Amino acid sequence: MTKVKAYAAPSEGAPLVATMIDRRDVGPDDVQFDVLFCGICHSDIHTVRGEWGKQTYPLAPGHELAGKVTAVGANVTKFKTGDHVGVGCLVNACLNCEPCKTGHEQFCQNGAIFTYGSTDRDGTVTQGGYTQSAVINHNFVVHIPKNLPLDAAAPLLCAGSTLWAPLKRWNAGPGKKVAIIGFGGLGHVGLKLAKAMGAEVTVLSHSDKKKEDALKMGAVAFHKMDAAAFASLKENFDLILNTVSATVDTAAYFELLKFDGAFVVIGADPTPTVLLSTSVGVSKQRVFTLSLISGVQETQDMLNFCGEHNVFPEIEVISASYINEAFDRVVASDVRYRFVIDNSTM
Ligand code: NAP
Ligand code: ZN
């Protein structure tokens, strides 16, 4: 066991503080790496503020880790010292059940282990990427293409993979009209990915503050949502991705779907989603579904795609001492568009 520098919440809702956490010794299947950068996902905030239920504290959040390999175990052949690597939301799964075997480890029937706040198979509670070093099973580590800057690549590990999976599943591409609700960390990456896939992307926002940025990043249209916007966009989109961290009028947005379209809930507002009457969806063969992160191979595919198409997030790099202020700014929708911690400042 080694002690490493970290930023962790000492208790529910408390500000994060500098501390030390334990990392296990490098086992035969492990990759050890210096976590050079870690993105701040809204999920980190939901978790340490108790919005998703009780946690074990102290808890270091962070599931957008990017860094360089410092050591590998005897069985590891895919990674070597110095490689640029990332870890997203998953650090363990059985790898034998049907979801695992089909590349959907997040739905492991024997329990997916998430990067922080999960009780791992060895009984320890996982600690995330707000730390200077990590030791992770090689099956859950991915390569970051060399042309992607490590700080900007970090948010791809969650935001990128979370948007990639539904865009692929619902065939975003040429001729498809995609709408993204909420233009924050996830939403802006979704725009960039969908545009690079060839889709026509519209951003639906709760203010008009981000219009210029969205158009610059390639959106064909941007709407501040009000009654007139809902009326004008009726039955307009093939795919709608809701990335909002708060409650939205799901039923009203659902009406913006075309015949045979799909509405995907990604934002993890803790209040239950409003259920729709079956007649609404069935009458036009429209799908209402949810999406949870992505599997490891999908994450690697997304990173390779981003390397090939030079897709990377818009970031603001911060010192670790700014994390608590950054949290407040994320909650106030005042982030352009992902905070990334420079972990060397811990
Ligand atoms: P974020 O950067 O805070 O973005 C959320 C966006 O939602 C904001 O930028 C804002 O966009 C909109 N918004 C925020 N408060 C709002 C309000 N009161 N009313 C209307 N719109 C509001 O958060 P994020 O990191 O992208 O994460 C978004 C959500 O996805 C979080 O709930 C997170 O936990 C969840 N998540 C889910 C998965 C998954 O696998 N399903 C994975 C990662 C994260 P506008 O200013 O454009 O309106
Ligand atoms: Zn996340």
How is this structure best summarized?
This protein is α/β, with parallel strands linked by helices.
Which strand-content bin applies to the residues?
Answer: 25-35%
Q: Which hetero compounds are present in the coordinates?
A: NADP nicotinamide-adenine-dinucleotide phosphate, zinc ion
The CATH superfamily of the largest domain bears the name: Medium-chain alcohol dehydrogenases, catalytic domain
Please count the helical segments.
11
Order of helices and strands: EEEHEEEHEEEHHEHEHEHEHEHEHEHE
Number of strand elements: 17
Which of globular, elongated, flat, extended, rod-shaped describes the shape? globular
CATH topology of the largest domain: Quinone Oxidoreductase, Chain A, domain 1
Q: Would you write up a description of this structure?
A:
The strands form four sheets. Strands 3, 4, 5, 8, 9, 16 and 17 form a seven-stranded mixed beta sheet that branches. A six-stranded parallel beta sheet has the order 12-11-10-13-14-15. It has a two-stranded antiparallel sheet with strand order 1-2. α4 (159-169) crosses α5 (185-196). It is α/β, with parallel strands linked by helices and 346 residues long. Helix content is 24%, strand content 26%. The chain has eleven helices and 17 strands. It has helices spanning 42-48, 98-101, 150-153, 159-169, 185-196, 211-216, 227-232, 250-254, 278-283, 296-309, 323-331; strands at 2-8, 17-23, 30-39, 65-72, 84-87, 90-92, 113-114, 133-137, 142-143, 177-181, 200-205, 221-224, 237-242, 257-265, 287-290, 315-318, 338-342. The relative contact order is 0.17. It is globular. It has two domains: 2-158 and 314-345, Alpha-Beta Complex (Quinone Oxidoreductase, Chain A, domain 1); 160-290, Rossmann fold (3-Layer(aba) Sandwich), CATH 3.40.50. NADP nicotinamide-adenine-dinucleotide phosphate binds next to α1 and α5.
